[in-house]
Amino acid sequence: MNRRRRIYEGKAKVLYEGPEPGTLIQHFKDDATAFNAKKHALIEGKGALNNSISEYIFQKLGEIGVPTHFIRRINMREQLIREVEIIPLEVVVRNIAAGSLATRLGLEEGMQLPRQIVEFYYKADALNDPMVSEEHITAFGWASPQEIDEIMQLALRINDFLVGLFLGIGIRLVDFKVEFGRLWDNEQQMRIVLADEISPDCCRLWDAQSSEKLDKDRFRRDMGGVLEAYQEVAKRLGVLPQNRPPKGAGPVLVASNSTNPAGKPN
Ligand code: 5GP
Q: Is 148 in the pocket of ligand 1 (CB under 6 A)?
């Protein structure tokens, strides 16, 4: 029986009280949701895959100096993280037109954007996470102008790093969503750190050759093969849970499937 104190339960994760003050346990569930939880399914094994993929990415980002909430993985489904005050914004970075941007601006999915674009959405399920501007963010006090600058810089650095990381394993990073939090090192010192997760649940990842989707759009668009797509990402990163490589092993370049009939040229 689970006796730990549950702090928060979201759509794909649960946060439990951690073993020490200032820590939490982040538990990855197998639940998949879309369209503000109107669509829901259990995909057995998804939680463990996201735990592994997110652990790998957060560790790599930490190594290049991006501050994160990640401390260490505890088991197949859980990781130890620092408790932060979540800034109520979803920060989306886009490289290629897709999803809501393609719909909103009438762009063809797959079009290379003139440059990377950062967008902010207010985290509010009841409102369907509306897009907001820096004006809204500062006027309503969700983050200060300095914090917004820091968040933008971190988001772009994360994007630069991840575009390269994924290209190295034959995957195009189309777009992704990240969240940030405030971490107090002591009473006075506050840092903005990357929080939440980075996994195929919150990224668009397309095979570089075939444009096959290797992310949650497979679930959103009823394409099937969701778990297989997440497994493929984990496999290429060299972090497939049941087949964990020795510590220090890196990404594995896997030949892309260029004959996928579902893939569309870009
Ligand atoms: P879009 O705005 O095109 O729907 O999403 C842009 C990117 O952010 C996609 O990679 C999508 O997966 C991610 N994203 C946006 N909102 C959410 C959300 O509420 N949950 C998750 N998991 N990802 C999101």
A: no
User: Could you tell me the CA-to-CA distances from 84 to 70, 81, 260 in Å, in that order?
Assistant: 11, 9, 42
Substitution candidate for ligand 1 out of 91, 132, 175 with most atoms within 8 A of CB: 175
Contacts 24+ apart (CB under 8 A), 155-161: 155/91, 155/93, 155/118, 156/93, 156/116, 156/118, 157/64, 157/66, 158/61, 158/66, 158/93, 158/194, 158/198, 159/93, 159/95, 159/116, 161/60, 161/61, 161/64, 161/66
Q: Tens digits of per-residue pLDDT, 73-114?
A: 999 999 999 999 999 999 999 999 999 999 999 999 999 999
Tell me, using a 6 A CB cutoff, whether residue 46 lines ligand 1.
no
Ligand 1 binding pocket includes 175 (Cβ within 6 Å) = yes
Structure confidence by residue, pLDDT tens digits, 107-157: 999 999 999 999 999 999 999 999 999 999 999 999 999 999 999 999 999
